[in-house]
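Team,

Forwarding the record for the chain on the shared tracking sheet. I've put the sequence and predicted structure together so nobody has to dig through attachments.
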Amino acid sequence: MIAVAIAAGTLMLGSRERIALRGAAGVALCAQACFLLGLTGLLRPIPLAAVALLAVAGATLRIGFASAAPGAAARMPRSREDFAVYAIFGLAVFLLFLLALLPPLAFDETLYHLPFVRAFTHAGEIRPLPGSRFAVFPVLHELLCVPAFLLAGDAGTHLVALAEAIVCAALLVEWGGRYKARAGWLAAAIFFGSPIVTSLSTVLHVELALALFVAAGFYALDRERYALAGFFLGSACSVKYLGFYFAAAALAIVLARAVNRRRCAIAFLATLAAAALPMTIWIVVNTGNPVFPFFLTSSWTHALPPQVSAGERAMRMLRVMWDVTFARNRVGFQPPVTPLLIPIVLAVAGAAMRDVKARWLVLLTACYVFAFSFLPPRGGGAGGDALAEGGNARGHRRDGTGSGVCRLSAEPARHPAGERVRAECMAVRPRSRVPRGSSRRSSAHLFVQ
């Protein structure tokens, strides 16, 4: 996959560009190609193979059957120190590769990410899944996993996330190396050494794709390549709604720092729209809501978080760095980030006193932490929350078959909401639309879905 991505990136950017950025561009380009194939019902082995061969042939023609220009290839190890660094990263990748071969066990992976990949593969097209936990959401990463699923089954999709982590680490080496050689390796080591990256790079989650496209977008922005930055961040928006936050932040930086603000902003927005609008339009066509299932009421709408005081929200903001590293019970028991997070934040805050780029990073982080404080605290997994709430739904008992979950699953025909859930789950429509205007259901009904 990495070789095909580099070939696609070479076709897009040329051989003079550094290999890490070409790899990131190739991943985004391949994902967008899978989306187009999914829209046209051609998400099949032969068209996918044709796209890969086209990328390789186009890259070969663009290079001109000659060696790449200076600076196009990765810097080869020249000293014992270089060999040691490459060996350490090679060992880390090998160990992660072994972990990625394990069967799918992650909660979100088995609940909706993998079912979407399987459905796209079997249907040969992109479609909503009304019986899934989320019937529609940005699925660019799931589409990118279809070729790996065809080649290696369920566990093959893990290798896509691992490839994205490798390309992201190489991008950090390249980005930091523009300032100081060891800075890039240090950034890649901190990234790859984080337990949450180790965990997410071996399962079918979308966070590594989001991290890759966001990092590549801001790297392109740092090099004042605004059209390329818009393409990367638009692809991030098609992976997860959170990408829109980083796209908005990048647009603010363009408007604040670009020399020719109007021309640069137009270039950025044009490629951003080209990469993000196709997925957004598909979501709107099927749901009528560009950020489904949020804000508008539907069968898949999240329950509103409980209101908290301003003091509690301020406390969440102050302790968020501690919580995501050590007090993981407050953030849904996510894998911990690096223990170096707090020192890194303090170092960036100190650098912000004399560096403009560090100030933008502090502002971006502060706004993100402020938004994070509005999220409800979670002491367990989503399934456990839904099951617990389901036991209390509409006065049902929390013991045995008296619970809301068991009653809905055992007697769907006797419960109007359960009957609707069953009808939506069992409906087989090649191009089914997500029903609009349906009444909001309890977490028990969502858990049954």
